[in-house]
Design goal:
Two copies of one chain form a homodimer. Chain A has 117 residues and is mainly alpha-helical. Chain A has a domain of 74 residues: Arc Repressor Mutant, subunit A, CATH 1.10.10. Helix content of chain A is 68%, strand content 12%. The first copy, chain A, has five helices and three strands, in the order H-H-E-H-H-E-E-H. Chain A has a three-stranded antiparallel β-sheet. In chain A, strand 2 and strand 3 form a beta hairpin. The termini of chain A are far apart. Chains A and B meet through helix 1, helix 2 and helix 5 of A and helix 1, helix 2 and helix 5 of B. The structure holds a DNA duplex (30 and 30 nucleotides).
DNA sequence: GCTTTAGTTAGCCGAACGGCTATCTAAATC
DNA sequence: GATTTAGATAGCCGTTCGGCTAACTAAAGC
């Protein structure tokens, strides 16, 4: 069976965002691009460990990077966050649509009640 | 070092949302509460496996449940999704604030250029 | 050109994840 | 009261995750 590519994208984006180190990187990149070394400094962690986080963010499409000499410069790719927003908005529409139908039902019951009384 | 409780909440919420089965449960619960058995049916999976997903959703605060006889009825707790929205909004503010400062800088450079020429 | 620096690659380790079966409890039903 | 049903609990298993060290490459800097 084929899995929708959207599902995989949401999987990897949500998984990437579930780690505080990676969310901190995103917050930092929101203020402008930065080298891997610079990004790594606040995090008490060996560089190879930190690189795995950067790779996870890139694979999820949240971050992109280019090579500038021996320096890898990372930039935020905010469109990936928009994918999450879209999913949440869809859920809210489901939830709110349900509430609308519930209140319509309540009104109908109320007016039925009037008819009966 | 103490970790902010907020970070842990975001950790578990994002982790819970990174699985397609669990996102499907959330979408289903958006249309109204349901028993575990009902929720499990569309997912080709043994019940104990499915129960772990429900537990993950509950621990993240996305779902709540009550016991009705031998039936466990689950409801969506959408406030937890709002926590995610808030985080994304904060990131957007960072990103957009940066863009504002960039364009202000660009304007300043442009007018400096005029003065020089 | 030697040294430092930034990053990469490989591989190890323990914990957590996501599935399973087997078994048990307790409510509902006949 | 015997049987079915909904869920809970325990424990197994392979994979992924998040950390590490060691060793390598290649660009910069002196």
């Amino acid at each position: 069976m084929l899995v929708s590519p959207m599902a995989n994208q949401l999987d990897s984006i949500f998984a990437a965002l579930s780690d505080p180190t990676r969310r901190a990187v995103i917050a930092r990149l929101g203020q402008g691009e930065a080298a891997v070394k610079t990004l790594a400094e606040p995090h008490d962690m060996a560089l190879p460990s930190f690189l795995k986080h950067i790779d996870t963010l890139e694979r999820a499409g949240l971050v992109r990077s280019r090579k500038d000499g021996r320096v890898r410069v990372c930039t935020l790719h905010p469109e990936a966050l928009a994918v999450v927003e879209t999913w949440i908005d869809q859920q809210k529409r489901l939830w709110e649509g349900r509430l609308d139908r519930l209140s319509a039902l309540a009104e109908q019951i109320a007016s039925d009640g009037k008819d009966i009384q």
